[in-house]
Amino acid sequence: MDKVNFGDTLVTPEEKTRRVGGVFSSVAKSYDVMNDLMSGGMHRLWKDRFVAKVKPRAGERILDMAGGTGDIAFRMAKCGAEVMVSDINPDMLEVGMERATKRGIDGLSWQQENAETLSFADASFDAYTIAFGIRNVTDIPAALREAHRVLKRGGRFYCLEFSTSEWPGFGPLYDRYSEHVIPRIGKAVAGDEESYRYLVESIRRFPRMDAFKAMIGDAGFKSTSVDPILGGLVAIHGGWKI
Fold it and tell me: Which domain holds residue 163?
């Protein structure tokens, strides 16, 4: 059986799925605090920019995959879109539902789903979003094909994900920071150094921007695009089902 990477460790696909589930169950309660600490709060600006790209509109059905804690869905719901928040991890979904209740945000649907084998019918959604989730999927091409399948003709795909900064000197600097500092923050704040070490390793192993853009095209999307942030440390990828 072919092995896949769980961070820097080679494991079976089934083992990766299980281990990733364990990571997000472990970090679910502290996930948003950790995002603030790891990005200096910038993840909020990145998510605002991402949703501005998606341009959600009233009456549209949007699938927000790996959307557990609700950060993207809450922003899109403000525009009147009908958002289905899906995540493979029930603990992440529970955090999102609790946050929605506390904030008085209605109109969201919540459903546990595996991005590689979605239960939704063909052509069910006007848009598909996934933020900081695609790199944790065991079979990324399968997830991209599923995204294409569940979109209506004319539907749009948008993905926000870490990549590799192409700014001279900045990429190596961030690599050192992420390798040595982020796991320590995870230990101090979440009591979980190893889960955050995996998250750092998963970012380092994610395809570069052009390679991932090509993967989106291979899944059937047209007019694919990439919008680098901080030289590509983070990137917004897009594509259309035509």
Answer: 4-240
Q: Which tokens is 208 given?
A: 């570069």
Domain with residue 211: its CATH number is 3.40.50.150
Q: What is the DSSP letter of 69?
A: T
Q: Considering only CA atoms, which of 39, 92, 41 is closest in space to residue 68?
A: 92
Instruction: Please state the length of the chain.
Output: 242
Q: What does the block give as tokens for 33?
A: 């605090």
Question: pLDDT tens for residues 116-135?
Answer: 999 999 999 999 999 999 99
Write the CA distances from 10 to 20, 77, 178, integer angstroms: 13, 39, 21
192's CB contacts (< 8 A; 6+ apart) are 26, 27, 186
What domain count does the chain have? 1
| pLDDT higher than 60, residue 1 | no
What are the distances in angstroms from CA 239 to CA 16, 91, 161, 213, 225? 27, 30, 14, 9, 6
β-partners of residue 125 are 151
Q: Is 192 in contact with 206 (CB distance < 8 Å)?
A: no
Name the pTM for this structure. Answer: 0.89
The three-state secondary structure class of 2 is coil
**Cβ neighbours of residue 234 closer than 8 Å, sequence gap 6 or more:** 46, 160, 161, 162, 163, 228
